[in-house]
Structure formats: C-alpha cells, structure tokens
Amino acid sequence: MGMKSASRRVAALTLGAQLLASACASDADGPALINYRLGQDTDLVGFEGELVDDDGCLTVEGNDSSTVPLWPEGFRLNHSDGEETLMDADGQVVAALGDQIRLGGGILTRKGAEKVALTPIPNECDGDRFFAVGQVGS
C-alpha cells in the first residue's frame, strides 16, 4: 500500500468518525436525540404532546402514548443554564423540555426507524413507536 493510499484511508476514517459523532446529537448530560436525513418518504400526519426526557431518551408524550421522534439532520439539544432546549439546524430554539409541541411527519415502526436513522437507535430509546419529524410547531 502506497503513502497516498494510506493517507486517503486515514482521511476517510477521520471524516467517517466526524460524521458519526455529529449524527448523534446528544451528550452525556441529556437525553438521546436521534437524527435522520430529510427527504425520507413519510406520509404527513399530525402529532402533539409534551417534549420530555423519558429515562434518557428525548420523547414526546401525548394522549396516553409515548413516541420517540427522529429529528431532521442538524437538530440537537442545547444544555445551558440548567435548561435543555431543542435547536433546529439553523441554531434556532424550537422547544424546551416540558413544552407542548406539534409535529408533522410520519409514524414509523422500530424497524423503519432503524433504516432511516443516521446512527443506531440508543438503548435508552426502547419504544416501538417512532415518528419521523418533517415539521415542528409550538
């Protein structure tokens, strides 16, 4: 293997590690947040509930059900001044934990969520009801 080939492999591995690290948008201080790439084929339906930390998984609780949202790529949690806020890809605050939010998107099974998620579904998110978020409102 030549030096150029080895350098390319190191660069590719480094880029791959950076992409994996950026796809999972949570840290040890807050609940797991799952991202997916927009453009996935989802039928738009409405869903409303409270944004909560359910044993380490960012979840929306509403009408006797708990749903794990898959957020568009770039969404992340911000931990500041003792408050956790959901930020969109542009860095704008979407909601804080405890807020009521409205989501538009598509309902997924766990198997469907595993296919479109940018990273493996964290163990903390052990539900069987997932929601690919296409639109967010408050």
Question: Could you walk me through the main structural features you see in this protein, from its secondary elements to its overall organization?
Answer:
By secondary structure, this protein is an alpha+beta fold. Helices cover 20% and strands 42% of the residues. It has helices at residues 3-23, 110-116, and strands spanning 34-36, 45-54, 57-62, 65-72, 76-80, 83-87, 93-96, 100-108, 130-137. A five-stranded mixed beta barrel has the order 2-3-4-9-8. A three-stranded antiparallel sheet has the order 5-6-7, with no helix packed on it. A hairpin with a 2-residue loop joins strand 3 (57-62) and strand 4 (65-72).
Features:
9 strands, alpha+beta, 2 helices, single chain, disordered N terminus, 138 residues, 3-stranded antiparallel sheet, 5-stranded mixed barrel
Please state the structural category: alpha+beta
Q: What is the makeup of the main sheet?
A: 5 strands, mixed, barrel
Distance between the termini: 55 Å
**Could you give the count of β-strands?**
9
The number of helical segments is 2
Q: How large is the share of residues in beta strands?
A: 35-45%
Order of helices and strands: HEEEEEEEEHE
The overall average pLDDT, rounded, is 77
Radius of gyration: 16 Å
Q: List unreliable stretches of 5+ residues.
A: 1-27
**What is the helical fraction, as a range of percent?**
10-25%
What is the global morphology? globular
Biggest sheet, spatial arrangement of strands: 2-3-4-9-8
